[in-house]
Input
Amino acid sequence: MAAVSLKGICKDFGTVRTLHGIDLEIRDGEFIVFVGPSGCGKSTLLRSIAGLEEISEGELQIDLQRVNELPPVKRGISMVFQSYALYPHMSVFENLAFGLRLAHKSKAEYTPQVEQVARVLQIDHLLTRKPKELSGGQRQRVAIGRAIVQRPKVFLFDEPLSNLDASLRVQMRIEIAKLHRELATTMIYVTHDQVEAMTLADRIVVLRAGRIEQVGSPTELYHRPANRFVAGFMGSPSMNFLPGRIAQIDENGIVVALSGGARVSVQVAPGRALPGDEVCVGVRPEHLHLAAGDNELAGEAMAIEQLGDSTVLYLQSAAAAEPLAARLPPLLPLSHGDACTLSFAPHHAHLFDVTGKAFERMSPIPAATTGESYSL
Amino acid sequence: MAMVQDKSHLGKILAAHAGLIAFLLLTMFPFLMIVSISLRPGNFASGSLIPDTISFEHWKLALGFSYTDASGRLIAPPFPVLHWLWNSVKIALITASVVLLLSTTSAYAFARLKFRGKELGLSALLLVQMFPAVLSLIAIYAIFDEIGNYVPWLGIDSHGSVILAYAGGIALHIWTIKGYFDTIPAEMEEAAIVDGASHFQAFWHVLLPMALPILCVVFLLAFIGAIIEYPVASILLHQEQNLTLAVGSKLYLYEQNYLWGDFAAAAILSGLPITLLFVVAQRWMVNGLSSGGVKG
Output
């Protein structure tokens, strides 16, 4: 168990800089998730922490000790790889025991340790098998077991669930969360799956192009995204963006004249904004309702997706170039080409300035499970 | 995989089989000829494929026994054939081991390490290997003559010199093994390194066991190459006791007297160790050793 501290971490591949000074303090026992689009540097960052890539600049501390120059095993980390990377010519037992054997432990010493980990992961009946005789989920457990058996100070996971099918992924996700509760070890987890990020993380680190965009709890990131990138990245379907200009500033927030002609009001603190400034309104699909209301957006239904638990409507509107996505109650009798009007409450909207930075929202983060978006 | 096929497919299958069988006979013919010559009385290169009378005189000589010919004359074996065979096997085994050691480690460097001139080195290796060894025979002779002045066991007429000369020809083997290493994901060794292995331990405990099939192939190729090699061995080895079977067999064929029958028996003997090694190695050359380690 250990805290991990990153101070100005940079990584160059030849002349190309992929990480631009990452500063991050990871607390002891915390579950941290790195998310971001492909090529944002999240895997490079993890590999730099692991010691599989050299750090070009900056300092990495694990448990208050500088580890830049230490090989992986001396950093007290262990890692679960995306492709599992099990040793195919060794049995499950040998796979689990490999690191302990390299550490010159005797068989009598490590056998109980391996068996105990195998029991925890429910793979104790598979110990004599070779990896090729295992299913995907079992291989994943062996890969995790190989990390646990080392009793590391920090666990690193590099997209560990991306090779599993959907139902197994949910199951393993729950088990990893359970594992974290039981071991209470610091875990750093890389994924591009925002559901994994939202469900597992104590804090999420959103990365883009080698820089941290925002660090915060899943709730913070969802309700108070720092900028347009984070707002668009978290949530599915992603947030709708409506370009416009500030028409009026009052005590209730800002009124925006959308480029499509409509006027909408948004409950945000104006800060130093002035009327006439170019801005962008952000509304999540789950906050759009099919009813007349304060902020109306009219358009034509372009596509309707019946998801069973909800209906996703894609509306071609004058307010935005992209179709607007709205998550509506299930089984709505809508069809292609219908004229619809969507509305949203001012306190649900986000506002971003021309650089993409978010205005501070006036409404507090809602208390847990008010069930607002599914109250219909 | 049994796919549903058109009826005309049967004709194609028959034609393909006929073609393959004809080709097989064509390739088998020289071998059968040699077997036939070795079993024929007297030393004649020509004659029917199936001899009228079978005589083991050549085999007796090759295996070191004397035999009495039709006129009652006792003929002693002219050459130490079994000793040559032992020389050949010894040289081939050591050569193959040295070649394997050098080519796997070089291939690892080319496949996994980053260093300047890597691409250039790979191409250069291949180009150098393309230069026919026969054309450098004089150079090879001169080099080993000189080496022999300082290190006698590597000089002319030593087995060490032949092994050293053969061990130089590893460029193609490096390419073969590197190609195989490239198919093994680097994550395997990274996992080993995270588990606490050094680079060498990752190579030894993880990469090599996974590459076993290709190592067998390279060992076999190097072994065969050394057994059948003639030009280099013929200029480096002189004394009768030191010859390899490939070089020694040539002694049966001197200007005035071509001992075809004895030559044929010796030639077949030289094929035996290759066959034997192949049978042994085959069980390791199975595919799919690396399956199951990564997703799939």
